[in-house]
Amino acid sequence: MAKYDNLIPRFLKYVKINTRSDPQSTTIPSTPRLTAFAEGLVTDLQAIGLTDVHINAQSAYVFATLPANTDKAVKKLGFISHFDTADFNSEHINPQIVENYDGQSVIKLDEAGKYTLDPAVFPNLKNYAGHTLITTDGQTLLGADDKSGVAEIMAAAEYLLAHPEINHGEIKIGLGPDEEIGTGADHFDVADFGADIAYTVDGGPLGQLEYETFNAADAQVEITGTNVHPAEAKGVMVNASQVAMDFHAALPEHDRPEYTEGREGFFHLYSMTGDVDTAHLSYIIRDHDRQIFEDRKQLFQGVADQLNQQYGSKRVQVTIKDQYYNMREVIEKDMTVVDLAKDALEALNIKPLIFPVRGGTDGSKISFMGLPTPNLFAGGENMHGRFEYVSEQTMEQATDVIIKIAELAEQRA
Ligand SMILES: [Zn+2]
Questions:
Q1: Distance from the CA of 81 to the center of ligand 1, in angstroms?
Q2: Global pTM?
Q3: Which of its termini does the chain have fewer beta carbons within 10 Å around, N or C?
Q4: Active-site residue list
Q5: CB 243 within 8 Å of CB 316
Q6: How far is the CA of 253 from the centre of ligand 1 (A)?
Q7: Taking the CB of residue 25, how many other CB atoms lie within 10 A of it?
Q8: Residue 79 — φ and ψ, nearest 5°?
Q9: Per-residue pLDDT of the chain (413 residues; tens, 9 = 90+)
Q10: 189 φ/ψ angles, rounded to the nearest 5 degrees
Q11: If you measure from the C-alpha of residue 34 to the centroid of ligand 1, how many angstroms do you get, rounded to a whole number?
C-alpha cells in the first residue's frame, strides 16, 4: 500500500489532460484549456476537504487553504506549482510505467524502440535502481513539470487532513497557469494568497533546493543602414548587417553561454536578422550578481553609443528590459524559509542539493513581490520533451518534504 494513496493516480489523471500554454496569447490564462483544468482542480481540492478554494481573478491561479490545527502563531506556509506544460507535443499523453527499474537497462518508450531512455545518454537513470519510473510513450512530453508538484502538494494536504496528530499552521496552496511562457507569476496575487513564506515545488531531482537565480534582461538592437548601389558605395554605404557584426564583436568574447557555468554571467545572442538596410539583434543578458548585471547592461549600451559616435548618427538603437532578479537578494534578509527546507531534507535523510540556478523560477518574481519563495524539487528529469520521466518514490519523498516543512514550522513557532 502506497503511503499516499492518491498521489500517483491523481498525477496520471492530470498528465493525460493537455495543458500546454500558448506563448502567442495575450489572455490570462493563455488558453481556455487551462481554465478548464483549473476548474477541475477546484473540484478536486474541495473534495480533499480544503477551504476557500477559488480561482483568483487577477492571475487565474487556483488558491486553497488548509486550516491550522494549532493555536500557536505559526508562519503561514505557501506551496506553489504550475499546471501548464512546455512547448512540446502534449496531445494524447500516454504515460508508461516501468516497475522496479534496474538502473541500467535501456527503456523503450515507443513500441518500435525509436525513442529510448538509455543510461549511456541519460546517466541520471542510474540513480533510480529499484524505483518505479513513469515515462512517456515517445510521442509527447510527460508533464511531470509540473504536475508532479501539483500532485505532491495535494497529497501532502490530504495526508495532513487525515493525520490531525501532526500539528501545523495555516497552509496556502497555489496552482497556476503559464509558467512555461514566463507570464504566470507576473500576475500572482500575494495578498489574496495570504502566505508569509512560500515554496515553488517545481525543481528537478531529489534534494534540489534553489534560492539563487539569475538577474535577467532582454535586449533588442535595431540597426539602420544606408543602402546604395555597391558600385557607388564608397564613403556612402552603411551596411546594417556589418554594423550588427561589429556590435556583436565588441561584446566580451567569452561571456557567452557556451563558455560559462556556475555564477558566471553572459550575453546571449539568440536571434539575428539583417540586410544592408536594417539589421536586428536579440539578446538576453544574465548575471547572478546585481552590480555586475547592471554593469553588463551599461557595457551593452556603451557599445551602441560608441558605434553611434563613430557614424555620427543614431544608427544603433538599444532597448533593454529587465525580466526578473536574483531572489537571493530578498531571501537572505531572513533565511528562515531556506533553513526550514534544508532541515526538513536533512530530517528525512535527503541530501540537500543547493546550487545557483542558471535561469529563473516563478519564485524569482514572487519573491520580489514580498513573498520569499525558493524552489523545491518535484522529481522530474529531462523536462520539456519526450524523454521526460519521474520516479514514484521521488514523488513520495517530495510529498514527505512538504509535510516535514509544515511540521517543523509549527514546532519552531
Ligand atoms: Zn516547471
A1: 8
A2: 0.92
A3: N
A4: 84, 179
A5: yes
A6: 32
A7: 15
A8: -125, 125
A9: 578 999 999 999 999 999 999 999 999 999 999 999 999 999 999 999 999 999 999 999 999 999 999 999 999 999 999 999 999 999 999 999 999 999 999 999 999 999 999 999 999 999 999 999 999 999 999 999 999 999 999 999 999 999 999 999 999 999 999 999 999 999 999 999 999 999 999 999 999 999 999 999 999 999 999 999 999 999 999 999 999 999 999 999 999 999 999 999 999 999 999 999 999 999 999 999 999 999 999 999 999 999 999 999 999 999 999 999 999 999 999 999 999 999 999 999 999 999 999 998 899 999 999 999 999 999 999 999 999 999 999 999 999 999 999 999 999 99
A10: -105, 90
A11: 15
Please report, as a single letter, which amino acid is at residue 49.
G
C-alpha cell at 256: 557567452
Closest CA to 361 of 374, 377, 342: 374
Place of cell 520533451: 385
Q: Give the Cα separation of 195 and 65 in Å (integer).
A: 10
Distance 17 CA to ligand 1 centre (A): 16
